[in-house]
Design a protein that fits this description.
Helices cover about 35% and strands about 20% of the residues. The protein is an alpha/beta fold. It has a single domain (about 15-100), classed as Rossmann fold (3-Layer(aba) Sandwich), CATH 3.40.50. A four-stranded mixed beta sheet has the order 1-3-2-4, sandwiched between helices. The longest helix has 13 residues, at about 35-45.
Length: about 100
């Protein structure tokens, strides 16, 4: 818990880590954010730079963050512990489809 709570803008993700030449972007929600950081560390050990994004919201998706990484990495990974259909991963796929 933070000493001083602050408002979080609705629909705005939080970039936790990134490198110069990220090849993977890991968008994680809630309790799976630490897992995303662990995966990024393992990938880094294999020479693969990864960005880790705390998505914060299932919907609305941070379209600006998603659009940036969709145009700059080879792989986008989503991590969630919610639902298989209609969840965060589905929302990301929908946005990527709209972005073309």
């Amino acid at each position: 818990m933070k000493d001083v709570p602050r408002a979080i803008p609705i629909g705005q993700a939080e970039l936790l880590q990134h490198g110069e030449n990220d090849r993977v972007a890991i968008f994680a929600l809630g309790a799976l954010v630490p897992m995303g950081q662990e995966v990024a560390a393992k990938l880094e050990g294999e020479g693969i730079s990864s960005a880790v994004i705390n998505a914060r919201f299932t919907k609305p998706v941070d379209v600006a963050m998603l659009e940036f990484y969709a145009g700059s990495v080879d792989v986008i990974v989503t991590l969630e512990d919610h639902v298989l259909k209609g969840g965060f991963g589905s929302a990301v796929l929908e946005e990527l489809n709209v972005l073309g």
